[in-house]
Amino acid sequence: MHRAPAATALALLLGATGCADVEGLQSEGDRGTVHAPRTLWKDIRPAPPDAAERPGTAAVVPGLPKVRGLDLSTVDALDVVRADVASAVAQDGGTGRLVDPRAPQRLALCTQAVDGGPDCPVRPAVLHDLTGNGRDELITAVDLDGRLSELRVYTVRDDGSIARILSRRAVLEGVEVAAEHLAVREPTTNPKYVSVSDYVWDPRAGIMNLSQLTLDECPGTGQTPSSANGTRCAR
Question: Is the pLDDT of residue 16 over 50?
């Protein structure tokens, strides 16, 4: 391989950096004054959430029979979602704090067919052990408008009751499960990145808690290629 003479390489380096010459370092000039962050609207605070709306609160879904053998594969996921959405609407009064107000109208499109029919917005249920107790949780979502969805995760308690342990309204660019982790991938305002929210089971709180929030860089530029794990980058 051809290598440039040392003197030539030094000249190229000095010309590229503009920070030093043969006599030593040079000042780059005043870079401006560093200012402390400015807090906006510091006198305005949101109202505290109601008891049922506190983040990190598990909720037993009312009106459902006890699960036989504590096996969620024996239940109808659509029945669980319908009961949960109805309860959430009753609690938040249609404000959308607990569930999108469009969810009941969307669920009305589901028929009595096993899969809810061709227009049913409830995604096929996925069973996966997220709590590490040897019993599968039920993971599903209600697609609201072709873009926004309501992600819902349910577990069965020792008494046979079904409890919601995660509720997330999001643009589901991708949902992944691995061991006792559930990751939600969402677009960001920067098309180069997708946000990844990693949830893990919190046995003390009885919910899936957010453990890590990161940005994942999309491969390529100017396109929306598939990432290494099969999900698409932000659109």
Answer: no
